[in-house]
Amino acid sequence: KNHQTTTTTTTTMQNDDDDLDEEEGEEGDFGEWIEDEESLVEISEQRKTKCLFSQRVYSNAHEALTRAATDFGFDLRRVVSLNKKNTFIKSKEEEEEGEKPSRSGREEEEEDDENELEFYDVIKVINFVRKMVLEETKNNSKNNNNKNKESDEKEYDNKELAKRVIARVNDGAWKDDVYLMPVDASGSDPLTYEWESYVYGIDDDEERAPAATKEEKANKDERDSTSQNEHSASSLMISSLRSENEALKLKVFEMMEKLGMISEEEEKQKLAPVANVGEKIVVSSAPTRNMNDDCASRRYANDDSDRFDKRTQQEKDEDEADARVRDSDDSYFNSYSYFEIHKDMLSDKTRTDAYRDALTKNPTLMNDADVLDVGCGTGILSMFAARDGGARNVVGVDGSYRIADVARMNVGANDLRERVEIIEGKLEDMDSIRGAPFDVIVSEWMGYGLFFESMLDTVLYARDKYLKPDGALLPDVCCIKIAGFTKQATVDFDFWNDVYGFSMKEVAVQQLDHALATAVVKHIEGKHIGTTETEILRLDLCKCSAKDTEFSAEFKLDALENATKDEPQTIYGIALWFDTEFSSRFCRENPVVLSTSPKEPKTHWVQTALHFPEPVVLDNITALGIKGRISMAKSTEHVRGYDISLESCTIDRSGKACGKVQTRLYRL
Questions:
Q1: What is the pLDDT of residue 636?
Q2: What phi and psi, each to the nearest 5 degrees, are found at residue 610?
Q3: Which of 436, 518, 546, 559 is 20 to 30 A away from residue 650, measured at CA?
């Protein structure tokens, strides 16, 4: 971290007692190494730090962070010590105007301890700022000719950029774990491993203090115990900080390799200089509050999981059920931060075309409308509404900080910033949304089996809080349909009977057990439907409540006409799918139906298969159909999951039960 300081401290300790001599020996003979002028130059170059908000380069991280605070209003000390409800720019202005009431040092220290960020949170903040500045700078360079700008204009732009980024830091947009990854693929940003020296007041002058003390007392015969303790603490502190820095680099490179940012071979090369240190070190489980005290509290171990355990612990006073809901929300939103999911959805032509047509081919509804896009993802629906639909103002909301950032960049890349705003966070936790109430709320909320993920609850919450009394909800109608499927649509159990001449029937047995306990999400072709279809639920989304997503319905499915005694139709289970409608109630010029039926083009939702314990035979003589009851209810174990119960039997010509009653409960 500061090799010159380390050397000075080591030299200072050479005449100390045996313990200190041993410590110096473990560190190596840095006194000889530091005298190499090339090494000094290399250290100086390594410590050079680019400004957070401009192209300037400073001699070290401490100077860069100091200038970020004085020139742009971004004080990392405030970020670390103040909770997310405080805004850094506002606090700075209040201090300048004398509006902020003074508090005692003890009060400030107690508040800082309570609100202070964890170590890895600070790393995320730094990387978040770097990433946002980089992306906004790229977008601005595409839209403007920055080369022709005067220096004063560039400085103004940088300060405006800083204000926008700081506002997003205040909103907590940095919290996604993706920001543990550095913007610089080399992982060599000095800010990420020297920020503590700025935040906790260990600058270069302070680190050189032990050497000055040594010179002053060089001619004394004895060293008092107080001075000796101070030197010991300084040496241990610097050694520990250097080791911590290397351990952090180790962790960054490992994470980059796991995420595919660098190859395993590249990781080995980058880790070579720090491998020996990394095996010993575990970074302390909380950021340093007092550097002298911290010297005694740092520990070495073979495992560094304690920091992550502490970082992910739920607050002890929260109810267990609330914690489970929050964990589920985090997992749910994080799952949508991966681009492959969005590629699958955007590539689903049936899905995307239906929403595009509803938003762009209904001018009576969309012209000059204020639109709220719930769960905006990459921002595709928001951009449809603004660019092609004629909407006046669009606000997109997404619970994933990472994908909301991407959506915001997509909006900027398509010159729609003036009409589209992207905000991140769980909608239910927001006090208000700028632009409300809205003329139109649009959302692609559907999950497998229609209700899996329970996102409809959020849409209905938005409807009740943010939609105008005569506003439109898109889509506005949904329904669930079912039909019986044949053997060709089942899981391929027979494959395991003969695998290159080997019997692997146990796999088939376990697959069947799974299929009888879990709703299987798979594509079923229309030709593999063996009964008529029927609708078991229809909801008017403008009037229904979240409770209506839990229901029970009776059903009757008839055998197809081609089922005969000589060629009966064997039914292996029930297929479930859904349709959603953008009805003529709101889409007068161009109503749209989005169907996930097996007889329609395949969608990414496919269908949901409920396998019977035993197949049933329909021949239009003794058994003419299937009747039963199907129920869906929110899972008590999995917050965003559903439980589906199915009771069924075959029926004769009079409609009476003529076969075995089968009952199963499936998890979705």
A1: 84
A2: -110, 105
A3: 518
Residue type (1 letter), 659: G
Structure tokens that stand for 408 in this block: 């915001």
Cβ-proximal residues to 17 (8 Å cutoff; 6+ apart), any chain: none
User: Which residues have a Cβ under 8 Å from the Cβ of 532 and sit 6 or more positions away?
Assistant: 483, 557, 558, 560, 625
Report the C-alpha gap between 445 and 465 in whole angstroms: 17
What pLDDT digit, counting tens, does each position of 19-59 carry?
A: 444 444 444 444 444 445 665 666 677 778 889 888 888 88
- Give backbone dihedrals phi and psi of 182, rounded to 5 degrees, phi first: -70, 150
To the nearest 10°, the Cα dihedral for 600, 605, 611, 616?
-10
**Catalytic positions, written as ranges:** 444, 453
Candidates 465, 374, 461; CA nearest to 425 is 374
Angle formed by the axes of helices 3-13 and 18-27, to 10°? 150
Kindly give, in sequence order, each residue whose CB lies less than 8 Å from that of residue 504, ignoring residues fewer than 6 positions away.
496, 497
> Measured between alpha carbons, how far is 197 from 47 in angstroms, rounded to an integer?
13
DSSP state of 560: P
* Tokens (6 digits) for 42: 């290399």
Q: How far apart are the first and last CA of the chain?
A: 52
Query: Span 314-336, mean pLDDT?
Result: 49
Strand positions, DSSP E, 532-602: 534-540, 551-558, 569-582, 592-595
Confirm if 250 and 280 have CB atoms less than 8 A apart: no
pLDDT in tens, 257-310: 555 555 555 544 544 444 333 333 333 333 333 333 333 333 333 344 444 444
Question: How would residue 120 be classed by pLDDT, with cut points 50, 70 and 90?
Answer: confident
In angstroms, the CA 620 to CA 412 distance is 62
Residue 482: phi, psi to the nearest 5? Answer: -140, 160
DSSP class of residue 622 equals S
Of 82, 50, 52, nearest to 70 by C-alpha is: 52
At 183, the pLDDT band (50, 70, 90 cuts) reads confident
| Cα–Cα distance for residue pair 292/294, rounded to 1 Å | 5
Burial label for 189, CB within 10 Å (0-12, 13-18, 19+), is buried
